[in-house]
């Protein structure tokens, strides 16, 4: 079986990219928390999928290093399978502030004895998420903001108000009065999030689970309601996500909003989102 090979270009220097993939204090921001990682040949490091543990032990041994350019290590799951694979991280400087990372993962077929969880397609999906989303956000300084509110109303009511065309305009008013959307809500659907002037964002719905979760994959800017090609600024944040999670509580519903945000807009979001969710809460509870 051919090795998994994925390549991504980032608008950062090769040095910054190298530090991100080899320094434990940086790795834990986008990858895994690895307490015993040392960048030296023969070093063995282990980790689980979460900082506090997990179901899958990962065991790796560094085989070779070319400082600033490449390092290679084994990749094992000794508690689940006898297989061994090899992972290579290769960095190429394209320009002073542009670099390419190529990841090669060979031998995932050796994990067949571990069962379907270790299928090659799962590794492909996982590496795409890690490199194309998590690492990218870290390198570009995109932070994750979380807002929560408890609402004394059933999930169905909260969902209806979140995505009803008239109610959406009301609860989103702290961001901009008259905000609205065009498009249908459903898995994979394209939605335009608009201001009264026709500017805004276009997005695809990445996850749609009615009354439970909606995740927008934000793609680019709108001008006069028309989708604009990516420019240097939007290249930084395209692919960012904005998610809404609804869960049952004894008193009604807990709404959790999680979004990727450029740090320079942090103050704006930290002011507008609580105000918007308060309006939504009052609407759902019949107090508005």
UniProtKB/TrEMBL annotation:
Domain annotation Activator of Hsp90 ATPase homologue 1/2-like C-terminal: ranges: 12-139
InterPro entries registered for this protein in UniProt: ASHA1/2-like_C, START-like_dom_sf
CDD domains given in the database record: SRPBCC_CalC_Aha1-like
Membership in a protein family: Belongs to the AHA1 family.
Official protein name in the record: Activator of Hsp90 ATPase homologue 1/2-like C-terminal domain-containing protein
Record lineage: Bacteria, Pseudomonadati, Bacteroidota, Cytophagia, Cytophagales
């Amino acid at each position: 079986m051919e090795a998994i090979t994925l390549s991504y270009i980032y608008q950062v220097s090769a040095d910054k990219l190298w530090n991100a993939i080899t320094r434990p204090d940086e790795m834990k921001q986008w990858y895994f928390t690895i307490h015993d990682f040392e960048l030296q040949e023969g070093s063995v490091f282990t980790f689980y999928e979460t900082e506090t543990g997990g179901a899958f032990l990962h065991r790796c041994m560094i085989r070779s290093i070319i400082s600033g350019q490449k390092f290679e290590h084994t990749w094992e799951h000794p508690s689940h399978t006898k297989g061994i694979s090899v992972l290579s991280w290769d960095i190429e400087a394209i320009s002073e502030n542009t670099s390419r990372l190529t990841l090669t993962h060979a031998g995932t077929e050796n994990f067949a004895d571990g069962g379907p969880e270790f299928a090659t397609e799962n590794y492909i999906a996982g590496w795409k998420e890690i490199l194309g989303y998590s690492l990218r956000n870290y390198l570009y300084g995109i932070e994750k903001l979380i807002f929560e509110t408890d609402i004394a109303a059933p999930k169905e009511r909260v969902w209806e108000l979140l995505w009803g065309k008239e109610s959406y305009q009301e609860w989103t008013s702290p961001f901009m009065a008259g905000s609205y959307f065009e498009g249908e809500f459903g898995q994979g659907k394209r939605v335009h999030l608009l201001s009264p002037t026709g500017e805004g964002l276009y997005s695809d719905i990445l996850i749609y689970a009615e009354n439970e979760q909606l995740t927008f994959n934000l793609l680019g800017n709108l001008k006069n309601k028309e989708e604009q090609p990516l420019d240097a600024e939007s290249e930084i944040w395209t692919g960012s996500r904005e998610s809404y999670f609804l869960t049952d509580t004894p008193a009604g519903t807990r709404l959790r909003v999680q979004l990727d945000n450029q740090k320079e807009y942090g103050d704006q979001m930290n002011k507008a989102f609580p105000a918007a969710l308060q309006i939504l809460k009052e609407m759902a509870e019949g107090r508005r």
